[in-house]
Design goal:
Layout lengths: L1 E8 L8 H18 L3 E8 L3 E8 L2 H11 L5 E4 L14
Antiparallel strand pairs: 1-3, 1-4, 2-3
Helix pairs in contact: 1-2
Length: about 90
């Protein structure tokens, strides 16, 4: 499976209360269960008017399917090509 970042434009999502986020999570999880093992939600980051979600998926099409079924927009889907972090500076060549 590939790693993707999904940008979702959701007005005022940064003001959502814990219960609203819990309900959104339940809705997303229900769709994920229906779609099966070819898609997995890893985590999401919430800003004022957007969420940035990290998913593992077999392809972009299943992410689009999840967005349509869940009602959460997939404004932009970007496949992650590589990861690096501060420890990369110390990795052997």
């Amino acid at each position: 499976m590939q790693k993707y970042i999904i940008e979702r434009e959701i007005p005022k999502v940064g003001t959502f209360e814990r219960e609203q986020l819990r309900d959104a999570s339940k809705a997303s999880n229900a769709v994920l269960a229906e779609l099966g093992p070819d898609i997995q939600w890893v985590e999401s980051f919430v800003t004022d008017d957007k969420t940035f979600c990290v998913y593992l998926a077999k392809d972009e099409a299943i992410i689009q399917r999840h967005a349509k079924m869940s009602g959460f927009p997939a404004t932009k889907i970007t496949q992650v090509k590589r990861l690096f972090d501060p420890t990369t500076a110390y990795a052997a060549a």
